[in-house]
Design a protein that fits this description.
This protein is of the alpha+beta class. Strands 8, 9, 10, 11, 12, 13, 14, 15 and 16 form a nine-stranded mixed sheet that branches. Strands 1, 2, 3, 4, 5, 6, 7 and 17 form an eight-stranded antiparallel sheet that branches. Strand 8, helix 4 and strand 9 form a beta-alpha-beta unit. The longest helix is centred in the N-terminal third of the chain and has 15 residues. The radius of gyration is 19 Å and the shape is globular. The chain binds 4'-deoxy-4'-aminopyridoxal-5'-phosphate.
Length: about 300
Amino acid sequence: MLPYAYFEGRIVPSQEAKISIAAHSLQYGTTCFGGIRGYARDMEFRLFRIFDHYDRLKNAAKILGMNFEMSFEDFKKAIFELVEANKPESGFYFRPFIYSDDEVLTPKFMGINFKVAIYMIPLADYLDTSRGMRLIVSSWQKFPDSAISTKAKAGGSYLNSSLARTEAMRLGYDEALVMDSNWNIVEGSAENLFIMYRGEAYFPDLGSSMLEGITMRTVLELLKENGIPVRFGRIDRSMIYTCDELLLTGTGAQILFAESVDDRIISQEMGPVCKMLREGFESILDMKHPRSNEWVTVINK
Ligand code: PMP
């Protein structure tokens, strides 16, 4: 963690940002969070889609019934102040989150006070981007939205991701894909996915049990710009095994391709769509894309 964090309304040394062991959020996982990347380019830091990350966090609070009064202006100000205080030397990641340190025994959202904190870490690759991922379909199912909101990016729901990811790692694979209760593949443990299948990009239905990723939303626009037809629907295991490319997208993961799923080879080399998307993403960060000014917030080093 970098030395300064945003805690209780101000920037403090990270060591001082401490909460009680009886905190509601620690006991019940009652948090929701975001993850924002800052890229180091030339003499600048370029922050990716901070408004969209703020907006998703705000919607998570709304879904869960948490109080969240922070305006986007205040959120942005906290982020700028953190960059100034931490003086990062390379690319980084912000973790904004909403939590409660109320010492209340009942698992509930009503009558609980929620607060915002943000910390920063240096972050290069979360998963290895230099090669294809070896994936498995996890035996852990993704919970349905009818059990826990899948759109809220809630702390407690990452027990599910942790189980799936651990299973993959324990068996010697890089990452796990999870199925929903209809046995359709919906995402990775912390990434969205789509496949190239007979010349079209297939995404799981938005209303399936997946988080609506901001990287995925960006990728959708890049696909459309490049004239690749996009479909939303059910993706079953057989489609995964026989697709031309399987891509994982996420703020941490960025854009990754699958080498194999359950030991069925998908592609040993990076495919053309993955290459095109990585180039598209770079052009956004290089401020050469028509949406760059809207999506990228620049901070001078
Ligand atoms: N699904 C899950 C479960 C995730 O944790 C993430 C990472 N936030 C994603 C998808 C990708 O979302 P984003 O592109 O907004 O990082």
